[in-house]
Specification:
heterodimer, A: 193 residues, mainly alpha, B: 198 residues, 8 helices, 0% strand, globular
Chain lengths: 193, 198
């Protein structure tokens, strides 16, 4: 009998379950979701964006905070080129190369002047933005799509920055540099695929 | 066990489909929700509020008043000419304000005033809902006007409150750059020739 009492709430809840309104594909929600997922579902984007965050943390202030402010704007410029149909040669190669170069920068603990680092990151931001921008015209809601992918990109940077803050400790420094090495190796893989 | 069952049943209660408490107010509520459902409006309101909050709401009280007045004027224009939909200039202004938030530099008073006047006017004009006419439309526009003003005030207070620490100020600048980036892309899409996208 006690077993019945135990299972009664579960049974009641199962019987009371309402319908699930899943897969809202259109409108603002659909546009935002597809934009948000676009950078997260491409491993080449993920690797490069995390590497940007790692490098920013490695370079320290002011790079660590200039980066998340400037990167989306440069990326949007690349995206605007994609939307306007202005071609950029070898976009996919550029994206894969960004993982190699940025990963290597972290792995070798490179500390160039800030403007050089900004230039390197900015050039690659244009490639990433162009790839996202070409998807924009097909989005259910282009503005929500843009906001979604900018937000996801920013969160990937933040993930890199958070991991990169480990450089304060000797063992963390090794871990971050190893992470950069892994990203560079993955980038080589993206180039070969 | 009884208490657990009661708690579970309460948690399983479905959402109530309520109606407007006063007959005829549905359009007013629809108007209040309108700015929240138009991404361009939410984004421009957010960055404008942050821009004013970054510089200090107390120093820019006149700017806040000008914004309120221009929202009123814009809503009047929307009521008289509902077909006017200034979404393109609104996006352009969102890019500009987002960039200014990202730069986080003090601005001349006159620039703030110009931004407040033009944004308020554009937001008001963008509040007309095509399917409404007559009294329903005016009730909806009144709701939108109140919502536009309140949402901007919330963003201002949010920005001023979160300007105390360096990391908070960076966070506000990041929001500005994200909004500018997203609006810039859509602006490019709107300006791109048909079939010209890559």
């Amino acid at each position: 009998m006690s077993r019945w009492i135990r299972f009664t709430p579960l049974l009641v809840l199962v019987l009371m379950s309402s319908t699930v309104s899943a897969h809202e594909g259109g409108g603002i929600v659909g546009g935002f979701a597809s934009g948000f997922l676009h950078p997260l579902l491409g491993w080449d984007h993920v690797a490069a964006m995390v590497a940007v965050g790692l490098w920013g943390a490695f370079l320290g202030s002011p790079a660590i905070w200039i980066l998340p402010v400037v990167f989306p704007l440069v990326m949007a410029f690349g995206g605007a080129l994609g939307v306007l149909g202005i071609p950029i040669p070898a976009v996919e190669t550029g994206i894969a190369a960004s993982a190699v170069v940025l990963g290597l920068m972290v792995a070798v603990a490179a500390r160039p002047p800030l403007w050089v680092a900004a230039l390197i990151v900015g050039v690659f931001a244009v490639f990433h933005g162009h790839a996202h921008g070409t998807e924009l015209p097909d989005a259910a809601n282009p503005l929500a799509y843009s906001l979604g992918f900018v937000l996801a990109t920013g969160l990937l940077h933040l993930a890199g920055i958070a991991f990169g803050l480990l450089v304060r400790w000797p063992a963390g420094r090794v871990a971050v540099r190893a992470g950069g090495g892994l990203i560079a190796l993955a980038g080589v893989g993206f180039l070969l695929v | 066990m009884r208490l657990a069952i009661a708690a579970l049943l309460l948690l399983a209660a479905p959402a109530a489909m309520a109606h407007s408490p006063i007959k005829g107010l549905d359009n007013f509520y629809a108007g209040i929700l309108h700015p929240l459902l138009v991404p361009a409006q939410v984004m421009s309101l957010l960055v404008f509020g942050i821009l004013v909050g970054q510089q200090g709401v107390k120093q820019l009280q006149a700017v806040v008043m000008v914004f309120l007045l221009s929202v009123g004027v814009g809503i009047g224009v929307a009521g008289l000419f509902p077909s006017v939909q200034p979404s393109l200039p609104l996006l352009g202004l969102a890019v500009l304000i987002g960039l200014l938030v990202a730069l986080a530099r003090p601005l001349p008073w006159l620039v703030n005033l110009g931004i407040a006047a033009s944004l308020g006017g554009l937001l008001g004009m963008d509040s007309a809902q095509a399917e409404m006419t007559g009294r329903a439309m005016w009730a909806s526009l009144l709701g939108s006007g109140i919502a536009l003003y309140l949402l901007t005030l919330y963003a201002m207070v949010f920005a001023e409150y979160f300007s105390r620490h360096a990391w908070q100020r960076i966070g506000l600048r990041v929001i500005g750059s994200w909004v500018a980036a997203a609006a810039l892309l859509v602006l490019a899409l709107r300006l791109s020739p048909p079939g010209g996208t890559g």
